[in-house]
Give the backbone structure.
Amino acid sequence: MSSIKIDWERIKLLPVIAQEYESGEVLMLAYMNEEAYNLTLATNFAHYFSRSKQRIWKKGETSGNTQKVKDIFLDCDSDTLLLKVEQTGAACHTGNKTCFFNNILVPTDKAALRSADFTAHYGVLDKLYHTIQERKTADPSTSYVAKLLQNENSYLKKISEEAGEFCLSVKDGKEEEIIYEAADLLFHLLVALGAKNIHPDRVEQELTRRIGTSGIEEKKN
C-alpha cells in the first residue's frame, strides 16, 4: 500500500475520474469523501459520495454496473483521483457507456442514445429526477417542466391543485382515478425537489429513518 496520504481535513470531497482500464476511455466524474475512499480501497470496487443523495453509494448498487478498481492515481496537487477500472455494463445512468457522450462540436441526439434498460435498472423516480434536471436548460415553449421551473409559484400552485384533486379522488373512491391523481401529484413534487436539487432518495432516507418511530412522537418533535 502506498504511503501517499490525502488531506481529508482540507478536502472534504475529492473529484474522481473513472477511466476504463483496457481502452483508456474516460467514463465519468464523481466524488469521494474519506469513507467512500476507504471503502474503495477495502473492497476494490468504486464507492462514491453522491452530492444529490447525500450518502455513500457503491457504483452499480442498483444497476449492477459495477467498477472493479485496477489502479488508483493521485494528481500532482493531491486533490483529484484517477481510477482505472474494469467497467461492467454502462458507466452512465442514462445507459450510455460513458457520461461524456454530448459532443459540443457535433451535437448528438440524447433520446437516441438513452438505453431502454434505464428505468429497469434505476427506477422511474430516478429517471424522472434526472429528466427534470435536464429540462432546466430546455426551451420553455416546448417543455412543460422547463416552463414550470421558470417560476417557483408555478410548480407550487400545481402541487396545491394536484393535492386537492387527489383528495377528491380518494373521497370518490375510484381506484383508477386515485392512482392517476397520485401520479400527477408525485410528478409535481418531483419537479419541486428537482428545482431544489434534492434527489428523491433523500426523502426515502428520511422515511427509512422514521421506521420504528411513533408517528405521535415524530409530530411532537
About this structure: The longest strand covers residues 67-74.
